[in-house]
Structures are given as C-alpha cells and as structure tokens.
UniProtKB/TrEMBL annotation:
Keywords: Signal. Residues 1-34 form the signal peptide. Transmembrane segments: none annotated. It holds the Pfam family SLH. This is S-layer domain protein. GO terms for molecular function: carbohydrate binding. Residues 525-589, 590-657, 659-719 form the SLH domain. Gene3D superfamilies: Carboxypeptidase-like, regulatory domain. InterPro entries: Carb-bd-like_fold, SLH_dom.
Length: 719
C-alpha cells in the first residue's frame, strides 16, 4: 500500500512540473534544459557463438553513459553534452569470448575520438568485435600452500589483466588482443609463502619470456612451478597505547638496503615473507609519533644493525626488539617562503627521517630515534622551491654539511624552533630548441652537480622553449635537457656529451642566463674543467692553458677540475714554465741540487730545469745546502721574477716612480714587477684615488697564473 502511495505522489509531482513548464514565458529555458544534448549510435557485430546481448557500450567524455546493445547489435547512447568522446565496447559475461576494444583501436591511446556537437546525432559508430586469444596453464605450489591463493598477472605495453588460480592449479587468462605478453605469478597472502616469479621462473620483468598470441589463439602449457619463500618472524615489544597497524616491519637487502618485503606489526608480532635466500637487515618504520623508527637491535642507523641470513624456503623465528620512545623536532618557516622541505640526517648525510607540514607555515619531524643529528631544509631532489637549500642553523648548503649545527634529542622530547631562514636561491634560465630550430615545450630540465654536494633542481620548458630553475645555492651547476622521444640530452655549453658539458655558476638572488641549447647547433664539444664555469674570470686563459697542455688539472670519478682559486705551489710553477717553454730537451741531473727535492720526486725534471736556467735559485740554508721548498705557494713578487728570468732578463730600466702604491721604489723584485706591468702581463688592482696595487706578498692563484702565462705567450710567443 505504501509503495502505491509513493508512486501516486511521484506521478502528481511530475504532472505539476509539466504544467509549470508549460506556463513559462516564451524564450525562457530552465537551466537543466538550456543546452541541447546529442547522441552516438551504431551497430556491434560479434563472432558466431557470442551473445550480442552481453555487449555493453560506454561513451566517456563530458557525459559518461553505458548501455546494453539490443538483440540486433544496435545501440544509441543519448543525453550527451557537446564534446569529444571515447567509445568503449565490452563483453559483460563469464567467461568472456571477445576482447574489449575502443572505437578505432583496441588501445585507448590509438582510438578514434567521436565528436558530438550540441543537439546532433552521430551515427554509424560501428564496431566489429573479435574472438580474443587465451593463455592457459597450471601453477604448482609448495606443500602447505593453496593454489587458489595464487594470482596470474598478464601484461603488455598497453594491457594489464589478472586472474585467480583455480584450486587444482589451472588458470585461463583471456580474451586477449593479439600481441606479446609477460606473465607474473604472485599472491597477496601474508606472510607471502612463495617467491614471485615471471614465466618461465625468472625473478624480474626484464628476464621474462614473452608469450606471443594471434587473434583467437589458445596457447596452452604455460606452466609455472612456484618455489617456497623464506619467512622471517619476530616480535617487537610495543607500548600498551601503541596505535594498531602503526608500524611496518621491513626486510631490506643488506647490499643496497632496498625494501624487499614489508608487513604490519600486529600485537607486536610480524612475519615477513616472499624472501629469497640471502642476507637481510630489518627496519621498523613507525607512524605512531610516540615510537621511533629504528633498525633491528634498537639502533638508529643500518651500519651496526645485525644481519639475518635465511636459506631457501626457511622459516626463521626469533628476532626480538623493543620499541624506542620517539623524539620530535618542530619548526616553522617565514611567511611568504612557500613550503619547506625538511630532513634529519646523520653526520655523513644519510637521511634518517623526513618532516611533514602541521600547518600553513609549521612542520614536524616525528619518529626520530634519540640521538644527535643535523637538519637540512629544501634539499630533496625534485622538490620545487625558490628557497635556497640550507642546513640548520642558517647555513647555505654550499658551506657543506660538516659546518652545520648539530641538534641532540632524547626519547620522548620535542625540540622546538628548529627553523630555516628564508633566503631566495639563485636562478638558471635559458631556452631549448629542437633539431629544426623550433622551441621545445614541456621538456624536462635538470640542474645538478656531478658530485651531488648541491641538491638537484628540476623544471620544464614553457611554450616558447624557455625555462627557469630556482632555489640554487652558490656553486657551479650542470644543465641537461632531455625531451621525451628525443635522440638524447643536450647539456650546458650546447654539447651532446656530459663529459664535455660546461658548468654554469650562480649565487642566491642572482639569475644566470645559460643561453640557448639547440639540437640544430650542438656538438660533441671538448672536455674543459668542471670548476671553470662559462664566463668565469680568466676562463679563456685557463682553457688556452689546457689546450696547450700546460695544465692538465685533476681527473677523478668522471670529473676534471682546475682548482682556479687554489694557490700555485713552487713545484707546479716549475712544471707550468717548462711546458710554456715548449718542453725543451733536458737531462735531469743524477744528483739533486736541492736538499728537499729527492731524485724522482714529482716535477723533478721541471724543477731542475728551472734551476739550470737560473730562473729559480732556491734558498741558501745555514748548513751550506740549497732548498727549493716545492710545496710552498709562489707569491706574486716571486712570480714576476720568474717571468722576467724566463724571458731572458731583457734590458729594462725600472721607473723612478712606482706604478703600484704597495711596491715602493727599491723594493725586492721592484725591477721585475715593474717590467711585468710594463709588458701588460699584470695589471694589478684598481684602488681608491685612481691608484693601483700589486699585492706582492699575495700567493698567486691558479686562475691568475693562467692569465700571466697567456699574456706572456702573447707578448713573447713561447708556446
């Protein structure tokens, strides 16, 4: 009776609504009917033996509609708003016989979109459906394990499906589109009793054998024997008020500490399965803020944590641990500093725990094991921010972790006000062009250092090919652009080889234009020095020095450095001058002329050549011997003397008035210094009052040495 009453009420409401609509003024349309809708119709054809009534058709776009085709295979989907639609055809039966497909292709990415205009009927969206292929086989499982707990996953580049295994171990996957498929055998049972495997019994996707199927094929005999997995079971004593399911027990491969398998610790008990024979370390990852994340043995880091070794299929029990009360660090960032990424690290930079936001400008690092740490901000690779990476307390990342302030926290303690300083980092900008010279849009840009001392930053190019990467600390960076589907990356310096890439420098608050990197003009380039960035002071002179073989710099771990701001030692200076002179024939003496220079020492030949030419006389010692002091830096006044003697001590009358305020007439090496200035080899420094200084007792840096030698060579043509 009540159902009939509700039906009469609904009918009455519909009639009232109809009368109201009929009385609306001309030209007025209620919002729900303001826009006319369209439709998509067509006919579905299926193979013999397939019931067409089981075919569903879905239109997906501005409106989402699914209908069943009629016994003739025809369908009409109505009520579609204007827009672009994908049309999907699917058999709703068990088992299915034909594979699902989109209009125009079995793959969504290659399907043909159907455009519906307002109020129009799109017809003839017809679809032929085909019998799918099937892959069948049998799964054998270890004793004590049920086959029905197993799962078979089948995948290709564009398709993924899975089925449960029958109690007798058989499986049947399909219908499949023609193509190549990889089979994976696994289970969701905990603890995982078997080793995950790819057909034919390999452990990773790359080694798997692909199964090729044609339309309507039934491929049989794809059988798999699953091997028993090792299981580590243990106990973690938890506080009485611990939140259930707040701790993961993770087994990590001891050689790279990657998570192999993980399970919840439930009521203090855990069993981690799915393990191959091998050696592991256990980590307890806590989310309950009262409990510290820790390694087996109650330790804060992996290094000293005991390893656990299991044999194939072994059920190992016994590891026990006690949860440690957690420490917490909190802080806040300045208004306008956007988000803040925070990580607690050990003294060697190993990340212990990351933080999370607790408010618009506040954050927390929880689950810390009691101990002494350092805190870093905005140093996660890929974290987008304009803020410079830094260490607590107000230390730019370019200063290095070793200079950062340590913080010590006890179990149960909350350490507050561990705050970063708001400081906008440097910026690198530029433009990326393709092989035809057109701008490359949405191309990933990576800004990094080869040794990883400064955090890697990323961005994508805009529509005009330009990019801007922010949040950089003081330093030399490399830039790479890697367009999707391209022939490979292009690097700063407009080269195609990372070895020959040129570094670029920036500092906080400054924008450095990298220039245009163009595939049309990029070359392989030649190797320079990673610590001599583009447009650096004396860049041209340093590269000339390298091209002449006068300085080879240092090479290690794929980098080549010049150390431009390091002082030149006297032994290296001898090598520079010998090479600048064209490496003349010279037989080094069998007995060293210097007490502190043994025969066969580094640069022995070059130093003794320098002495033989009278370019360096060394020092007379009290015991009547001579020393060269090879590791002592060369001062600028001595360098002037070396250059003057290298030139053959040409005739020169020293000026009666010194050109430098810090080199008085008659000073040591006055003639040599003023000769150096007269030749334009050294220009000195501009000082107040239109004066110049030479700074004679300042050690010569390696970049200035390159400039001296370049100018000397220009003047005298030695090399």
């Amino acid at each position: 009776m009540r159902a009939k009453s509700r039906g009469r009420i609904r009918l009455a409401l519909i009639l009232v609504a109809s009368i109201l609509l009929a009385t609306l003024p001309g030209g007025f349309a209620p919002p729900a009917f303001a826009a006319a809708t369209g439709s998509i119709s067509g006919t579905v054809t299926v193979p013999a033996g397939v019931d067409v009534n089981n075919i569903l058709v879905t239109a997906g776009g501005p409106t989402y509609r699914t209908i069943q085709v009629n016994p003739s295979g025809q369908f009409t989907i109505v009520g579609l708003q204007a827009g672009e639609y994908s049309v999907y055809f699917y058999e709703d039966a068990s088992p299915r016989h034909v594979y699902s497909t989109y209009y125009g292709s079995a793959v969504y990415a290659e399907s043909t979109p159907v455009v519906v205009a307002a109020g129009t009927a799109v017809t003839s969206i017809d679809q032929q459906m085909f019998t799918g292929a099937r892959i069948q086989g049998k799964v054998s499982v270890p004793a004590g394990t049920k086959a029905s707990d197993m799962y078979v996953g089948v995948s290709s580049d564009s398709y993924h499906e899975g089925v449960a295994v029958s109690p007798d171990g058989s499986y049947d996957v399909g219908p499949l589109t023609p193509g190549d498929y990889t089979l994976n055998f696994s289970t969701s049972v905990q603890p995982i009793p078997v080793l995950q495997a790819y057909y034919p019994g390999v452990k990773d996707h790359e080694q798997a054998q692909k199964i090729s199927v044609a339309q309507g094929d039934i491929v049989t005999g794809i059988n798999q024997i699953l091997q028993p997995a090792a299981i580590i079971s243990g106990r973690l004593a938890l506080p009485a008020d611990a939140v259930p399911f707040s701790i993961f027990a993770e087994a990590k491969s001891s050689y790279d500490l990657q998570v192999v398998s993980a399970v919840y610790v439930e009521n203090g008990v855990y069993s981690i399965g799915g393990l191959e024979a091998g050696t592991y370390k256990l980590f307890f990852h806590a989310s309950d803020i009262k409990i510290a994340s820790m390694w087996h043995g109650g330790l804060p880091t992996a290094a000293a944590s005991p390893t656990i070794t299991v044999a194939a299929g072994e059920r190992l029990t016994g590891p026990t641990d006690t949860a440690v009360p957690a420490a917490t660090i909190t802080g806040s960032h300045a208004s306008g500093a956007s988000n803040t990424d925070v990580q607690v690290v050990t003294a060697d930079g190993t990340i212990v725990q990351g933080g999370f936001s607790t408010g618009p400008q506040t954050f927390m690092v929880a689950n810390l094991f009691p101990g002494t740490y350092k805190v870093q901000f905005n140093r996660s690779s890929g974290f987008a921010t304009a803020q410079e990476g830094q260490y607590y307390n107000n230390l730019p990342e370019s200063s290095g972790l070793g200079s950062a302030t340590s913080v010590t926290v006890a179990g149960g303690q909350t350490l507050n006000n561990i705050n970063p300083t708001s400081r906008v980092g440097g910026t690198l900008s530029g433009k990326i062009l393709g092989p035809g010279g057109a701008p490359l849009t949405n191309t990933p840009i990576r800004v990094y250092t080869k040794d990883g001392t400064l955090v890697t930053r990323q961005a994508n190019t805009q529509g005009d090919g330009t990019f801007k990467v922010t949040g950089l600390s003081t330093g030399n960076y490399f830039v790479s652009a890697a367009p999707e589907g391209g022939t490979g990356p292009v690097f700063s310096g407009n080269v195609l080889s990372e070895t020959n890439a040129r570094s670029v420098s920036t500092t906080p608050g400054r924008n450095t234009d990298v220039g245009t990197l163009s595939y049309a003009t990029a070359t392989q380039g030649t190797q320079a020095f990673d610590d001599v960035p583009l447009n650096a002071q004396f860049e041209k002179e340093i590269l000339w020095l390298a091209s002449k073989g006068i300085s080879t710099g240092w090479e290690a771990n794929g980098t080549r450095t010049y150390k431009p701001l390091s002082p030149v030692n006297r032994d290296a200076m001898a090598a520079f001058m010998y090479r600048l002179s064209g490496k003349p024939d010279f037989a080094a003496p069998g007995a060293s002329p210097f007490k502190d220079l043994p025969v066969g020492a580094q640069f022995y030949k070059e130093i003794t050549w320098l002495a033989d030419k009278g370019i360096s006389t060394g020092w007379d010692e009290a015991d009547k011997t001579k020393t060269y002091r090879p590791l002592q830096p060369v001062n600028r006044d001595a360098m002037a003397a070396f250059m003057y003697r290298l030139a053959g001590e040409p005739d020169f009358t020293a000026p009666e008035v010194s050109p430098f305020v810090d080199v008085p007439v008659g000073a040591k090496f006055y003639k040599e210094i003023t000769w150096l200035a007269a030749q334009g080899i050294s220009t000195g420094w501009a000082e107040a009052g239109n004066t110049k200084s030479f700074k004679p007792l300042l050690p010569v840096n390696r970049d200035a040495m390159a400039a001296f030698m370049f100018r000397y060579n220009t003047k005298f043509g030695s090399s």
